[in-house]
Amino acid sequence: MEGERSLVMGKYISFPEDLPGHIGTLVLNLVDPATDAGSIARLVASSLGTLDSEVAANIDSDPLIDYRAQRPWVNYQAGQLTGMWREGLALSVVKDVEGTEFLRLYGSEPDFHWDSLVADMLDVVERFGVQSIYSFTAIPAPVPHTRAADMMVRSTKPDAQSDGLDANFWFQASFADYLEYHASRLDIPMTNVAVRVPMYLAGHHYSSGAVGALSMVGKISGLRFPVGDLQHDVARQNERLVELAEENQELGQVIGAFEKDYDEKGDTPGFVSAPDMDYTVPSVDEIGRAAEQFLAQVDSANERPHVENEFDPQGLARRIDEIRRARSWRSDQQDQGRNGWQPPSAPHAQSGKPDDTPEPEQKDEPESQDEQSPDDPDSSDSGKGKRWGRHSWGFGKN
């Protein structure tokens, strides 16, 4: 049994028995608010979250997240806590706007056990036959929002004809950087797109940069991502920045200085502008087929029962259920004692126990589905055999 389990279980990632087939592209879209300049990663996540997807594997996020740094959120309503939202990671099979499948790792950047998770991700690459990996980064820089978003493209297999940034420096790595370094040791192609974000927008959102990042990854990978909502937001943001520059003279001067410096220097070596999106307009028949497929998926989703906490590697949900059943059993026993209990006969008196303090009848506790303690790290396979469905986390659509 132990050998059989090792075939379907990683340290933090477990796979369904009916593993999806070959999927050649993996997109990393992890969010760390502390380093997500211009909210690029979060904007990309909101865009990719609109695509049709299904769970590719379950990830045990509990050991990976520092809940003191990324505390769960709870919902207070009328004197009670009625809901909870917590950080986590998920791996899904996603279809782009033209129906091409790719893998997407998304959620919160992990705080702990990066080596183990990298090993699990390399296992994902092997199991799905991934041929290329893509990630996103944001860099605050003295550039104006009034010029096209530009970015640096870094790859473990650089194009001989492309010019990289001629520099040598150290910087603090993201998990995607950490994975990229180890992937390069195994000759696995991985590409990072690092968007330059205007410094005055680093603490806000820079939709133009998110559009540029998605456009660049789409051009390299051949995937087609939804950017319509982001493009509308770009227009609204630009209009608002014009108003703010008129109201705030200092902001207007900063933008003007960045524009002048950008135009005088021209293209920065090592950085490229975002490519234009080249979507083809679908025919009426194609739109009709897409609508029928979407409605069929909605009907199928409505027919499936909703199951909460179905993936429970730490055993918390299982333990709560055991306590509820035990309490229900004790409550039934108390009801029997109030409604029809008869004191035992003479043998109790002979044993030295007073007649008015009888010994309650012994009854076996209901057996647990799993004898392991919830705190036992080996209980992480307690979710094996359960239905594979959507996560109960609240950070986005799977």
Automatic annotation (TrEMBL):
<feature type="compositionally biased region" description="Basic and acidic residues">
    <location>
        <begin position="318"/>
        <end position="335"/>
    </location>
</feature>
<protein>
    <recommendedName>
        <fullName>PAC2 family protein</fullName>
    </recommendedName>
</protein>
<dbReference type="InterPro" id="IPR019151">
    <property type="entry name" value="Proteasome_assmbl_chaperone_2"/>
</dbReference>
<feature type="coiled-coil region">
    <location>
        <begin position="227"/>
        <end position="254"/>
    </location>
</feature>
<dbReference type="InterPro" id="IPR038389">
    <property type="entry name" value="PSMG2_sf"/>
</dbReference>
<feature type="compositionally biased region" description="Acidic residues">
    <location>
        <begin position="367"/>
        <end position="379"/>
    </location>
</feature>
<feature type="compositionally biased region" description="Basic and acidic residues">
    <location>
        <begin position="353"/>
        <end position="366"/>
    </location>
</feature>
<feature type="region of interest" description="Disordered">
    <location>
        <begin position="298"/>
        <end position="398"/>
    </location>
</feature>
<keyword id="KW-0175">Coiled coil</keyword>
<dbReference type="Pfam" id="PF09754">
    <property type="entry name" value="PAC2"/>
</dbReference>
